Amino acid sequence: xxxxxxxxxxxxxxxxxxxxxxxxxxxxxxxxxxxxxxxxxxxxxxxxxxxxxx
Length: 54
Description:
Blueprint lengths: L1 E6 L2 E6 L9 E4 H9 L1 H11 L5
């Protein structure tokens, strides 16, 4: 789930695994830009660490 919100008058994006997520992940515009600049590195990180355990 993705929601838009506000923190101290600034827009934020809120990511939740479910509607009743206790601790959602939220970030503002500055961090969103940083994520976009490094999206390929983030994708590689997930691929490299998403191996099933033996």
